[in-house]
Amino acid sequence: MTKTYNFCAGPAMIPEPVMKKAQAELINWNGLGTSVMEVSHRDKPFLALAKQAEIDLRELMNIPDNYHVFFMHGGGRAQFAAVVNNFLGEQGRALYLISGQWSQLAADEAKKLVPEEQIDTVSISNHQNKDETKSVTLPDFTGDVRQFRYLHYCPNETVDGIEIFDDIDSPWPIIADMSSNILSRDIDVSKFAVIYAGAQKNIGPSGLSIAIVREDMLQLPSLPQPTIFSYQAQLENNSMYNTPPTFAWYLAAEVFKWLKQIGGVSYIEKINRDKAELLYAAIDASDNFYNDVASQNRSLMNVTFHMKDKSKQAHFLTEAESHGLVALKGHRFVGGLRASIYNAMSMEGVNTLAQFIKRY
After folding, report:
1. Domain segments of the chain as ranges
2. Which residues carry this modification: N6-(pyridoxal phosphate)lysine (predicted)?
3. Any known ligand binding at 158?
4. pLDDT in tens, 163-176
5. Is 243 marked as binding a ligand?
6. Does domain 21-261 have CATH number 3.40.640.10?
């Protein structure tokens, strides 16, 4: 039987050791004789799990003490609304940098919640059509006298295969949607006011999101909103204003343990860079495939590529699946092909795909 390598962009694969542990203790977690899904989130065993999960995440990301960590419902789209409602108030303005599909969707959501004049957008992507190289140029805010509550951007565009590695020199607090690259490489958390991420790529299963919020941001005026998405309410209730997604939280906690055991974020970053280099090299050397992202903005997590003869794509996908290489179809917004190679994807899996591309 051919081994399956899952390149899905999300929900994405979870590390095999974590899945095996979850399988082994599915109906008897922590020696309680019940599943973790069946215990109260307010009882001591789960509270201990939640506390350790935050400790491990803080260690993995070196999160400073003046930041709060919230485990919340919903994915990145829920956080699109949460950041607006928690920080803009009735008069606040925000600046959204647009580098691809997800940053655009975040800005579109913001415009639904407040008058459009409160949301400014700046395109930082240089490509005008699908045939041009996709690259990013960050704005120069020197001398900029505009006043914004925050600047929002998406460091890794899952759909477009674009990643922003440069720091943004912003005079305003920076909010980053790191749904698809959190824990993939070392970052300096102190350079951000807020980091949020849907869990279903590098953290765990879908249904959970994580928000890392600097203390001073909680002093900004908020808008009326559902209490479940209030960061202040999450702070006052230790992320348990109501029943949280306990099984997703449990799996996230196990992923954090796994990542610590193998060497942490700096270790996985080296592997991620090696995986991406191997796959991009195979695409660049091929006569049948190409990648249209500028080399300095090629994503480590989401490798997008296209066939020069697009009529062969369906055949390629069928042949790839027969070799155990699944979920390689590109996002419906842009088409083409995409291999998502998050932390849980092994070098073996990436090498198998690279060799298949070379042979095809």
Report:
1. 21-261, 264-359
2. 201
3. yes
4. 999 999 999 999 99
5. yes
6. yes
For residue 140, give both structure tokens.
């120069």
State yes or no: pLDDT of 130 exceeds 70.
no
Is 310 a known active-site residue?
A: no
Matching residue, tokens 């045939």: 131
Catalytic residue among 201, 258, 275, 329: 201
For the entire predicted model, the pTM comes to: 0.95
Q: Is 352 annotated as a binding residue?
A: no
Cβ-contact 265, 186 below 8 angstroms: yes
Residue 177 annotated to the active site: yes
The answer to whether the annotation marks 102 as part of a ligand binding site is yes
Q: Is 102 a catalytic residue?
A: yes
Question: What's the half-sphere exposure (Cβ side, CA atoms, 13 Å) at 15?
Answer: 19
Architecture of the domain made up of 264-359? Alpha-Beta Complex (3.90)
- Closest residue by Cα to residue 215 from 57, 67, 82, 58: 67
